[in-house]
Amino acid sequence: MDSQVEKAPPHRGMPSWLTPRRVIIAGICTVVLFVLIGSLIEQFMNANPKMLAALLGGSAAAAATALGTLPVLFAQNFSRRTYDSFLGFGAGVMLGATAFSLVIPALNAASSAGAGSWESSLMVGAGILAGAGAILLMSRAVHTDSILSTDPDQVSLRRAWLFVWAVALHNLPEGLAIGVAFAGIDLEKATSLATGVSIQDVPEGLVVALALHSVGYSRLAAVGMGIVSGLIEPIAAVFGVALIGIAAGLLPYALAAAAGAMLLVIVNDVIPESRQSGNGTQASIALVIGFIVMTVLDTALA
């Protein structure tokens, strides 16, 4: 009897990737998503003009990403120096947008809510940390997925799609920032931010399509996947408005979190990528130019 018990087939537990922590996080995210979808539907039903403005702003950014991919269909090649300069310029634009269109409005929103100077600074600092931490965790989740297949074609395909997902994750805070901006701060600031994001997305779309084409994908496939990577922005934008619709008091934190998320992407991904091929000086000059362009846009549209 004992030996029969010992020889019973072992119990198959849950898959190794399905850990209790991931189950809990997925459950929380699901609840939050349903709440946001409810707010989203309600605001669309009520024809909230801020929702339409955010959708248009996010769509403009997605269109800019698509526009940036088009040269890959016609141009023979781009030098690595050009590639890195585009990255640096985009980083400069987004640094300017982070400072002028997110951090400063977040401080103003906290102050308008009655917070003092120290309290406003701490609120915004906490939001920046939260946004940066959230993107860091999501980025690790994307990049730590194992590629189990040993077929070279399958490995290449998985890596390419992981790359597209990583870029889409990069676009998530940009879209959220647009939505939060249109939900709470003045229209001119929100328009300035959306314009800055769109300008940055043109070289970003080019960079994505070039990277995919360089690893063997056809021009058409590279352009198509680059366009897909930008579609997250209008979706994230309307969810940003829905978030503020649930709790307007979250505005300072939401603006700061969007700033922190974008800041982490710039510092952790874009700037290192622009410097890894020895074109750091050109990329840095382009970054300064991009920052100046965003400064001018913010002043002109204010």
Automatic annotation (TrEMBL):
Q: Does the keyword Membrane apply?
A: yes
Q: Which residues cross the membrane?
A: 23-41, 53-74, 86-110, 122-142, 162-185, 220-244, 250-271, 283-301
Give the similarity note: Belongs to the ZIP transporter (TC 2.A.5) family.
Name the record gives this protein: ZIP family zinc transporter
Q: Which InterPro entries match?
A: ZIP (IPR003689)
Q: Which UniProt keywords apply?
A: Cell membrane, Membrane, Transmembrane, Transmembrane helix, Zinc
Query: Mind listing the GO molecular function terms for this protein?
Result: zinc ion transmembrane transporter activity
Q: Which GO terms describe its cellular component?
A: plasma membrane
Give the originating organism.
Massilia aurea
| Membrane topology of this protein | Multi-pass membrane protein
- Which Pfam families does the entry link to? Zip
What subcellular locations does the record give?
Answer: Cell membrane
Major location category of this protein: membrane
